[in-house]
Design goal:
By secondary structure, the chain is α/β, with parallel strands linked by helices. The chain contains 11 helices and 16 strands. It has helices at residues 6-18, 54-64, 90-97, 116-123, 134-140, 142-150, 180-192, 200-206, 253-261, 278-287, 299-307, and strands spanning 31-36, 39-45, 73-76, 101-104, 127-130, 154-162, 168-169, 195-199, 222-226, 245-248, 265-268, 292-295, 313-319, 326-327, 344-352, 355-362. It is globular.
């Protein structure tokens, strides 16, 4: 592949970054491509935490191919880090390698970096540029930007429904409204999240595993159950496998002890009404370095999360069928005036198999 310009170089770097979509949390997904005279010398993407970042991976790839990178251009989808974390600063590695130019898609929102990485490169005589395909780079790491800027993860709420908005028949039967392609796509969205969040109502009615299946990922997302009274059954399938985080509002010493003895964590986060404080839950998830939350819950918890301002984006799969009188997606309202409605902006609409996938972002009041 020939790289003709900065757009070509960053486009390829973004493709490399996308390869790391499921494996880098809590670190951002980053890709790096090193180019000279239009030819690719090396490429890499961020590895799981504690392993090489994208820039180091690209430098190693170039060395393995026998290429000298001195004076070459590196395209990086996020500003190179400039601090010691689990690994040394990538800015130092680029300086030592003698790169002639570094093009970053977007500045790192981490206050430990935030322009300092590019400043270090410039101070060592490397030509720098920032802003090539910035929007695409932001979207790839929207959860990381959310956590760094707001202190809370990006929350994506997934639901599947008929064209008239039904998620289950009046008797609770719901498998399957959407087709196999949409269900597989839903697992791909699960895989990129740090947390899959559900409520005790869904656990009691469906007994789900809430795990990623059929998608390659280095780790399973943490499962979080909102369960105000800790009513969860000891043999619930969601408690199998990796430990869960259970979020309650009312203390129950015996149940807390039993869950903790089984390896699970229990958090008590009550609000003034004796329910789980959902905004506090999001702040705690941010503190625990969760970038993206994937919600799969029932209409009551869905509605509560939306009312409490905890949802950023809806991931809705609509099937070409009608269910008539059925259970709905969100328990909201009733509203008396249209001005009370929750406004959304369509971000993406795409057909997945026979179904339609809609990404819609909630707008601030």
């Amino acid at each position: 592949m020939q790289i003709e310009n900065d757009i070509d170089g960053m486009t390829l770097a973004l493709k490399w970054a996308a390869k790391a979509a499921n494996d880098t949390a809590p670190n951002p997904r980053v890709g790096c491509v090193i180019v000279r005279d239009g030819c690719i010398l090396g490429a890499g993407h961020t590895q799981p935490p504690g392993q090489a970042h994208a820039e180091v991976g690209a430098l190693r790839d170039a060395a393995a191919r026998g290429h000298d990178v001195r004076g070459a251009t590196a395209y990086v989808t996020l500003e190179p880090c400039n601090h010691f974390g689990r690994t040394p600063p990538c800015s130092d590695a680029l300086v030592r390698a003698g790169l002639g130019r570094v093009v970053a898609a977007i500045e790192d929102p981490n206050p430990l970096v935030a322009g300092q990485g590019m400043a270090k490169l410039a101070a060592h005589g490397i030509d720098i540029s920032v802003g090539v395909l910035a929007e695409q780079a932001y979207e790839l790491n929207i959860g990381f930007f959310s956590r760094m800027r707001r202190g809370v993860p990006w929350v994506r709420m997934k639901t599947a429904a008929s064209l008239d908005g039904g998620t289950a028949l009046h008797n609770g039967v719901s498998q399957w409204i959407t087709g196999a392609e949409a269900r597989a796509d839903g697992h791909a969205w699960r895989a990129r999240a740090g947390v899959i969040l559900t409520g005790i109502g869904t656990v009691n009615s469906d007994d789900p595993q809430m795990s990623v299946r059929g998608v390659d990922c280095a780790r399973q997302p943490r499962r979080v159950v909102v369960d105000s009274r800790l009513d969860i059954a000891p043999d619930a399938r969601i408690l199998g496998g990796e430990p869960c985080w259970l979020v309650a509002a009312r203390p129950n010493a015996a149940r807390v002890a039993a869950l903790r003895a089984a390896g699970h964590e229990v958090w008590l986060l009550p609000n003034a009404d004796g329910k789980v404080d959902l905004p506090a839950l999001m702040r705690e998830l941010g503190r625990r370095e969760i970038n993206e939350v994937h919600v799969e819950a029932g209409s009551k918890l869905n509605g509560s999360l939306i009312r409490e301002g905890c949802v950023d984006e809806l991931l809705v799969y609509l099937a070409p069928c009608l269910l008539g009188t059925a259970q709905g997606m969100f328990s909201l309202g009733p509203y008396d005036r249209l001005a009370q409605r929750q406004q959304l902006a369509f971000h993406q609409v795409q057909q997945i198999g026979a179904d339609v996938r809609i990404l819609a972002r909630l707008l601030a009041d």
